[in-house]
Specification:
heterodimer; A: alpha+beta; 20% strand; B: mainly alpha; Methane Monooxygenase Hydroxylase, Chain G, domain 1; 9 helices; 85% helix; 0% strand; elongated; Syntaxin-5 (chain B); transmembrane (chain B); SNARE (chain B); Syntaxin (chain B)
Chain lengths: 195, 355
């Protein structure tokens, strides 16, 4: 499960403009990194150009999956992840990032912006945060916590069963104790009454 | 906001725009004129006419203004003209803002009306999902910006409120309040339209499921009938299948795919939510089991308690018995000692006196 890039684009009429992007290319060898980055930028632009407004789509490219979300106001986001990464989390991330972006960056700057001029720095944080979808996505987080709770509860059940066995032992032992004490009392009384 | 606005009004021009805009644009104007009844003198310029294309009655504002001016000059002479001019300029600025907001409001109302018409359409094949989505988005943005503008207007009124007269202030407050109430009613309408839309979507899905499941259930039936039963029945079932397939024209299936693509994300969200829900239900049942088991163990614990208590009683009773016995034994020993003493004494006497 890995995210490779997260980019925000503006879907212009003929071409898509890259507004801001964040990359995580640490898994590639040092010499490939720049070309990989370039390739990812190109792919993102191409995908945004080919997908319609207000649509979500997932495109498979070799073993990578590109999740794209174009809002109806032409702002688009692309996430490139490996095929294991859950698409729902990717779309949640896109929605969140685009919302944030549209709040922080003025609408007028969208068609003319470039990575150098746009002042929005949240992408890298989001990218590193969403590397682990279990932590970042609230729904998966809740799910994971619930699973944990379930395991804990199962453990509790087991210990409760053990406790039940021990209690049964205690019951039998206390019964033996009761009969023995009764016998003790009887012999003591016999001792007393005989002479 | 500005480009959106243009686009929206252009879009709605041919539709319901005229019918609604008349009433909507009029309403701020009527609010202005009604509230200005109490303040005719200091706010002559507040009665700037609404755009002529939307006015249905005759525009007599100019006459009224001139009458006002003549009245004013007759009453106060020249000395009051300067502050009045200043106030008038402020006032006109305020009126301009108010009018702009009113216009925007009416535009948004028109869009909302269009959305309502689109959303209330029940047909399965003529569903303009994209348009509706876009309109919804636009209206949402419009409402937001209107909210912002009204807040600005309020700030403006507050800033200028201290300088201008009481009447002017109440007048502007009335305008702001009326604009706000318009906006509130519009957002209510918007909400109800959205509700209608979701309801429609639900119904459509139900119908689609009915039609798309039908052929699947008819398929296994057909071969059976062809094999043994009368041929007419088989043909009949096939005919019904044909009918069912006809419903799934390429157009429909294409639409289905499109909608499915759009829905996949929502579907996956719903699935996850369902997962979470089922896990929570499971957890609940586990907790119940736990409670049940703990309750069961309470009985065994009570039994242990009783046993231990009984043993304690028995042991205490035995202890007291043994104590008693011990006491009796010790008292017996003294007796024996006494007897022995007496015997020894007698023995000594016997030995001394008889030997």
């Amino acid at each position: 499960m890995k995210l490779y890039s997260l980019s925000v684009l503006y879907k212009g009429d003929p071409k898509a403009v890259l507004l801001k992007a964040a990359y995580d290319v640490s898994s590639f060898s040092f010499f490939q990194r720049s070309s990989v980055q370039e390739f990812m930028t190109f792919t993102s632009q191409l995908i945004v150009e080919r997908s319609g407004k207000g649509s979500r789509a997932s495109v498979k490219e070799q073993e990578y999956l590109c999740h794209v979300y174009v809002r109806s106001d032409s702002l688009a986001g692309v996430v490139i992840a490996d095929s294991e990464y859950p698409s729902r989390v990717a779309f949640t991330l896109l929605e969140k990032v685009l919302d944030e972006f549209s709040k922080q960056v003025d609408r007028i700057d969208w068609p003319v912006g470039s990575p150098a001029t746009i002042q929005y720095t949240g992408l890298d944080d989001h990218l590193s945060k969403y590397q682990n979808p279990r932590e970042a996505d609230p729904m998966s987080k809740v799910q994971a916590e619930l699973d944990e709770t379930k395991i804990i509860l199962h453990n509790t059940m087991e210990s409760l069963l053990e406790r039940g066995e021990k209690l049964d032992d205690l019951v039998s032992k206390s019964e033996v104790l009761g009969t023995q004490s009764k016998a003790f009392y009887k012999t003591a009384r016999k001792q007393n009454s005989c002479c | 906001m500005i480009p959106r606005k243009r686009y929206g009004s252009k879009n709605t021009d041919q539709g319901v725009y005229l019918g609604l805009s008349k009433t909507q644009v009029l309403s701020p104007a009527t609010a202005i004129s009604s509230s200005s009844d109490s303040t005719p003198l200091p706010t002559p310029v507040a009665l700037v006419p609404s755009p002529p294309d939307t006015m249905s009655c005759r525009d007599r504002t100019q006459e009224f203004q001139s009458a006002c001016k003549s009245l004013q000059s007759r009453q106060n002479g020249i000395q009051t003209s300067k502050p009045a001019l200043h106030a008038a300029r402020q006032c006109s600025e305020f009126t301009l803002m108010a009018r702009r907001i009113g216009k925007d409001l009416s535009n948004t109302f028109a869009k909302l009306e269009k959305l309502t018409i689109l959303a209330k359409r029940k047909s399965l094949f003529d569903d303009k999902a994209v348009e509706i989505e876009e309109l919804t988005y636009i209206i949402k943005q419009d409402i937001n910006s209107l909210n912002k503008q009204i807040a600005q207007l309020q700030d403006f009124v507050r800033a200028k409120g201290s300088q201008s007269g009481r009447h002017l202030q109440t007048h502007s407050n009335t305008i702001v309040v009326s604009l706000q109430s318009k906006l509130a009613s519009m957002s209510n309408d918007f909400k109800s339209v959205l509700e209608v839309r979701t309801e429609n979507l639900k119904q459509q899905r139900n119908r689609r499921e009915q039609f798309s499941r039908a052929p699947v259930s008819a398929l296994p039936l057909a071969p059976n009938n062809l094999g043994g039963g009368p041929i007419i029945l088989g043909a009949e079932s096939r005919a019904s299948r044909d009918v069912a397939i006809d419903m799934m024209d390429p157009r429909t299936s294409q639409q289905l795919q499109l909608i499915d693509e759009q829905d996949s994300y929502i579907q996956s969200r719903a699935d996850t939510m369902q997962n979470i829900e089922s896990t929570i239900v499971e957890l609940g049942s586990i907790f119940q089991q736990l409670a049940h088991m703990v309750k069961e163990q309470e009985e065994t614990i009570q039994r242990i308690d009783e046993n231990v208590l009984g043993a304690q009683l028995d042991v205490e009773a035995a202890h007291s018995e043994i104590l008693k016995y011990f006491q009796s034994v010790t008292s017996n020993r003294w007796l024996m000692v006494k007897i022995f003493l007496i015997l020894i004494v007698f023995f000594i006497i016997f030995v001394v006196f008889l030997a």
